[in-house]
Write a structure and sequence with these properties.
With about 280 residues, the chain is mainly alpha-helical. The chain has helices at about 10-25, 30-40, 60-75, 155-160, 180-185, 195-205, 220-235; strands spanning about 1-5, 280-285. The chain contains seven helices and two strands. The chain binds copper (II) ion (CU) (2 copies). One copper (II) ion binds near residues 197 and 223.
């Protein structure tokens, strides 16, 4: 059993080992294959295919499995490394140590949004974006979106999602009520457009706003916190379970498009139920 730490508590040696392992996965091609996996399963709900990763109930278990796949690879490179989490309700500034030269590097420069600092800056020569190159071969960010400012979700906004006792609800998509969508963060047009998880992607900007978001290593730290939030919700609502418990019935427009509790999630063939806990694998500090 290993520990996932709050990124603000990492020593400089730990930051160095984390970024070095990430760079090695990039060098050997594993990293980009993981980015392709995320992009492949980035299916919006206007599409009639199965949605396993986003805009659907399996958002939490699918990303838990995805982070574990990444972390397994990291730990093969360096067994002392795990995925740190970023609590964006407290480290909410573009000048947080998270964005420093010795960790993830900072925002993109004016104009083309190219990240110029840190180990993932294109000019350092170790981070060429190959998946989704239509946007740019260099990593892009626009922290806080200064031309049209957006702020990170507050503690109260996060609590509003955690307080919701129902996991998810029909039609199980970006319009659904329930904890999953309050946290994933699709909001109706005309209201505040992005919430919680989605708002964080928008706050970072650049690559983080699309299907190839994991091109930005910030993705993993963001999703580790999302994973921790799922734990907090389960602790707060021990009698609430994953929904739907059984697949939508014949005649339901979502039949075949969302996964029930015991249906296997591609590409790993692991069910949401099997992803409920992570006891014995990792814990959060
Ligand atoms: Cu995702
Ligand atoms: Cu995300």
């Amino acid at each position: 059993m290993y520990t996932r730490q709050n990124q603000r508590d990492l020593t400089s040696a730990q930051k160095k080992r984390f970024t070095a392992a990430v760079l090695e996965l990039k060098r050997n091609g594993t990293y980009d294959s993981l980015v392709r996996t995320h992009d492949k399963y980035f299916v919006p709900d206007r599409d009639s295919r199965l949605r396993v990763g986003h805009m659907s109930p399996s958002f939490f278990p699918w990303h838990r499995c995805y982070l574990l796949a990444f972390e397994r690879e990291l730990r093969e490179i360096d067994p002392s490394v795990s995925v740190p989490y970023w609590d964006w309700t407290t480290d909410s500034s573009p000048v947080s140590s998270l964005w420093a030269e010795d960790f993830l590097g900072g925002t993109g420069r004016t104009g083309d949004r190219r990240v110029m600092t840190g180990p993932f800056a294109y000019d350092k020569g170790n981070w060429t974006v190959t998946v989704g190159v239509m946007e740019a071969a260099y990593l892009t960010r626009n922290l806080g979106r200064p031309q049209n400012p957006i702020s990170l979700p507050t503690r109260a906004e996060l609590q509003w999602a955690i307080d919701e006792p129902v996991y998810d609800a029909s039609p199980w998509d970006s319009t659904a009520a329930g904890f999953r969508n309050k946290l994933e963060g699709w909001a109706a047009p005309k209201s505040e457009r992005w919430r919680n998880h989605n708002k964080v992607h928008q706050w970072i900007g650049g690559h983080m706003t699309g299907g190839t978001a994991p091109n930005d290593p910030a993705f993993w730290l963001h999703h580790a916190f999302v994973d921790l939030i799922w734990d907090r919700w389960q602790q707060k609502h021990p009698r609430s379970g994953y929904l739907p418990a059984v697949p939508p019935g014949p005649g339901d427009a979502q039949r075949g498009r969302v996964l029930a509790l015991d249906e296997p999630m591609p590409p790993w063939n692991v069910t949401p139920r099997e992803m409920f806990g992570h006891q014995g694998i990792y814990r959060y500090a």
